[in-house]
Amino acid sequence: MGMLVVPLLLVTLTAPAKTATQKLADFSRFSEAINTEVALIDAGGVMREGLLTAATADAVTMKFASGDRSFARADVASAERIRDSTRDGLIKGMVFGAVTGLFASQGLSTPAQGIAAWAGSIAFYGSIGWAIDAAQKHRQTIYLAPAATPAPKKPALGVAVRF
After folding, report:
1. pLDDT tens for residues 75-98?
2. Cα–Cα distances in angstroms (integers) from residue 150 to residues 146, 147, 153, 163, in the given order
3. How many CB atoms are closer than 10 A to CB 41?
4. Which of 12, 42, 133, 155 has the highest Cβ tally under 10 A?
5. Cβ-Cβ contacts under 8 Å for 111 (sequence gap 6 or more)
6. What are the Cα distances from residue 77, in Å, to 52, 54, 80, 130, 151?
7. Separation CA 63–CA 35 (nearest Å)
8. Which of 93, 85, 84, 83 is nearest to 129 (CA)?
9. C-alpha dihedral sign at 112, 113, 116, 117
10. In degrees, to the nearest 5, what angle opens at C-alpha 144 toward C-alphas 70 and 30?
11. d(CA 141, CA 40)
């Protein structure tokens, strides 16, 4: 049973988190990303990368090398953080280190050695988790405009009777 704990813990900690589409359609999520680098795609499909400086319920303002520019809610198709936080990698590594440290400390002779090994395991695996997360260059979606409901399709074959 003990041999299954570590692989199951590893799979659980590394599984990607899914964000619901309804949650991504919330325009107020921009307020959480103020003062971070953001890639914004407007309704025309043009991508712009800059610093998000302000966010209201109806518009966002970004700072570019050429100056500040505001985008209305209707003009924003999607937005992503250019880099996500490395805290989650650190936390996942520390949890993994705590569990593996508990198993490793069982073979030591004194409680002080066990506590030292456990703390060392947390620090070691936490730093590995942070380094792996920092090395990844994936983006984190902030906003995704809700898709417009498509018009009903015409039938492929139609019959018309005229007199």
Report:
1. 998 888 887 677 888 999 999 999
2. 12, 9, 8, 34
3. 17
4. 133
5. none
6. 16, 17, 11, 32, 19
7. 10
8. 93
9. negative
10. 50
11. 10
For the entire predicted model, the pTM comes to 0.54
pLDDT digits (tens, 9 = 90+) for 3-43: 666 667 666 666 665 557 778 888 888 888 888 889 999 88
Instruction: Name the nearest CA neighbour of 105 among 97, 151, 15, 136.
Output: 97
Return the structure tokens found at 155.
């039938």
Helix (H) or strand (E) holding 40: strand 37-42
Rounded distance, CA 54 to CA 32, Å? Answer: 10
Q: Report the distance separating Cα 12 and Cα 14, nearest Å.
A: 6
Domains identified in the chain and CATH numbers: 2-14+21-144 (2.30.30.100)
- The pLDDT assigned to 154 comes to 63
Residue 69 DSSP class: E
Q: Are 49 and 39 in contact (CB under 8 A)?
A: yes
| Residue of 123 and 13 predicted with greater confidence | 123
The residues, any chain, with a CB within 8 Å of residue 10's CB and separated by 6 or more, are 96
